[in-house]
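Run: sequence + histidyl-adenosine monophosphate -> complex structure.
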Amino acid sequence: MSTLQAIRGMNDILPDASPVWQYLEGQVKAVLDQYGYREIRMPVVEPTALFERGVGEHTDIVEKEMYTFDDRGGDSLTLRPEGTAGCVRAALQNGLLHNQVQRLWYQGPMFRYERPQKGRYRQFYQIGAETFGIATPDVDAELILLTARMLDNLGLTEHVTLNLNTLGSSEARGRYRKALVDYLETVKDKLDADSQNRLYSNPMRILDSKSESTQALLDDAPTFDDYLDDESREHFETLCRLLDKAGINYTINPRLVRGLDYYSRTVFEWITDSLGAQGTVCGGGRYDGLVPMLGGKPTPAAGFALGIERLILMLETLNKIPASVFNTVDAYVIMAGSAAEEAGMALAEQLRSDVPGLRVQSHCGGGSFKSQMKKADKSGARIALILGEQEVQDRTVGIKFLREEKEQQSIGWDELSKAIQELI
Ligand code: HAM
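>> structure
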C-alpha cells in the first residue's frame, strides 16, 4: 500500500526544527507581554460569510484562495485565511468591545490556496495583534514600535525596511478610486491581464501590481495625495512624527495598498530582500470600518500579523539563531546493569524535583555503556551522569563533561542535586 502524504503546501514541523519555532514564538510573545497585549484563541474554522464580508469579496483571498466546504449540516464553512475577521467576530460575540479598549494577540495556522513556493504555503502560521477602541495614531505607532522591537530582538533590524502609507477615509478612497479608474480606462489595453480583471472590482490593488509595464503606466495616474482628507492627513503626519521621535526608519510608499479590503488610513509592511519573492514578513494597518461591517458599533481598530515561516527563513538564511536554542537536554543519565537502572530512574526523578528547569534525559532501552555514551553525546547534553555497578555499591554518580575539558567527578547521591545546581 502506498503511504499517504501531507497535502501540498502543508508542512510538518519536525522536532529538529521546533526549537527554532519555540525560540521565535517565545521572543515575539515576550515583546507582546511587554506592551500589555493579552492572548485570544479563536477557532480555525469560521462561517464563510465572515471572510466574504470582512476580507472583501473582490480580494484574491476570497475569490480564489479560501478552503471552503459545506459541513454535514449544509453550512458553508471556511478554514481561516487570516485572523483579523475571526478576532473581531470573537470580540463582538463575547462583548469585549463595549466601551473598552482591547489589546489582543493570537497565533496559529492560517490557510490559503496559493501556489506553494519558498516562503509561501497553504497552511502557514501567523502571530497577530489587534487593538480596539483607540482612534488616535499613537496606537498605530505602538503597533509599529512593537514589531520593530521584536525584529530588533531577533537581530533582523538591518535586514528589513518599513513601508508605510495611508489609504485615507473611505470617502476619500471612493473619490480617488473613481479618478484612478477614469485614468486606467484610457490605458486599459496596455495593462497586464490581472490588472485588467481588477479594473472595476478592485482597482486600488492595481497600484501594487508586480507588472513593470503596469507600474510604468501608473507613473501618470492621479496620486492619492491629492484626494486625501484632512483628518487622515493629520493622522498620518502625527504617526510619522511619533516614529521619527522613536528613531524608526520608514519609507513612505504611496503604492502600498495591501491585499485585504478592510483597511483605512494607516497601512504598513516590513519587507526584506533576503528571502526572494516572498519578502513581506509582517503586514498590518488600521481598519476602523470592519467592526460595524461585521455588525458591531463603530469601533476604531488597528493591528498586524507576521508570518512565522518567513521570519524563520530569515533567521536561518542570515545565521541569526543562537546555538543555545538547539540545546534541549542538560544531563543524560547512563546506567549499566539492572541495579543501576533502578537507582538511575529514582535519581533522575529526584533531580527533576530538586532542580527547577533542569532537563534530564534518562537512557531507556538498555545497551552497552559505549552505545549509551554515544546517545548521550548526540542528545546535546552538557553532562552525562554515569551509574555502573560500582557506583551503585558506593552510592555515587560519575559526572562526565561532554562539551568541555574537565576531569570526571564522582559525587555522592545525597549531594548530587546541590552539585548539579551549582554546575548548570
Ligand atoms: P497578510 O498580509 O495577508 O495580513 O498576512 C500577514 C503575513 O502573513 C504576511 O506578511 C506574511 O508574512 C504571512 N503570510 C501571508 N500569506 C502567507 C503564505 N501563503 N505563506 C506564508 N506566509 C504567509 C493579514 O493576514 C492581516 N490579517 C494582518 C492584519 C492584522 N491587519 C490588521 N490586523
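>> summary
Residues 82-84, 112, 114, 120-121, 124, 126, 128, 130, 259-260, 280-285, 287, 303-307, 309-310 surround histidyl-adenosine monophosphate (CB under 6 Å). The two ends are 49 Å apart (CA to CA).
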